[in-house]
Amino acid sequence: MMCGKGGLALLLGVAMLAGCAGPSLTGTTYSREEARQVHYVRYGIVESVTPVVIEGRTDGPVGTGAGAIVGGIAGSNVGGGSGRAVGAVLGAVAGGVLGSTIEESATRKQGQEIMLRLDNGETISLVQEVEDGQFFRPGERVRLLQSGGTTRVTY
Q1: What span, in angstroms and rounded, lies between the C-alpha atoms of 6 and 98?
Q2: Cα–Cα distance between 77 and 94 in angstroms, integer?
Q3: CB of 56 closer than 8 Å to CB of 105
Q4: What pLDDT does residue 102 have?
Q5: Are 42 and 95 in contact (CB under 8 A)?
Q6: pLDDT value of position 69
Q7: 38 shares a domain with 79
Q8: How far is C-alpha 26 from the geometric centre of its chain's CA atoms?
Q9: What are phi and psi of 63, to 5 degrees?
Q10: Are 56 and 150 spatial neighbours (Cβ–Cβ below 8 Å)?
Q11: Cβ 6 vs Cβ 103: under 8 Å
Q12: pLDDT over threshold 50, residue 1
């Protein structure tokens, strides 16, 4: 099956967007490595909640790489002779920058900064992704789960 340049660009674009899905940062999503690990539990009361934005990935090779490939293909169709090579290089650079920007935007998350007063009197703040559009509310009693370098707030 032959795939034209337009089809290849479309395929790469779809692959780029599929690769943008990052790990969830909610309080109820666990990585494979966190399963079957001891989590230390503390309890507290939510003092305040502030909506925040959790920046998207800018270190992923998917957006930059796929963007560079698509841009290079598109740029190679500009001009003729050595102009095509220059167009391919410029297209690859521009595509890489655009791909990286798209990846950051696609992986950006709605977050919440949760200020907690723990039962031991300590006040702490933690940022995590908002789950299903539901923010914690001041006055709610919550659990703080800690394991390794990961801490999460749950009910």
Answers
A1: 18
A2: 15
A3: yes
A4: 73
A5: no
A6: 72
A7: no
A8: 12
A9: -65, -50
A10: no
A11: no
A12: no
Three-state DSSP class for residue 59: coil
What is the pLDDT at residue 147? 92
- Within 8 A by CB and 6+ apart from 44, the residues are 116, 117, 118, 119, 124, 141, 142, 144
pLDDT at residue number 18 = 46
Instruction: Calculate the alpha carbon distances from 39 to 26, 134, 138, 150 in Å.
Output: 16, 24, 24, 9
As a whole number, mean pLDDT of residues 116-133 equals 96
Q: Which domain holds residue 139?
A: 31-55+109-155
Q: Which amino acid is at 117?
A: R
Task: State both tokens at 136.
Answer: 């914690």
Same domain, yes or no: 115 and 154: yes
Looking at the structure, do residues 40 and 64 belong to the same domain, yes or no?
Answer: no
Based on the fold, state whether residues 49 and 68 are members of the same structural domain: no
pLDDT tens for each residue of 53-104? 998 776 666 655 666 676 667 767 776 677 777 776 777 777 766 766 676 6
**What is the total count of domains within the chain?**
2
CATH number of the domain residue 37 falls in = 2.40.50.100
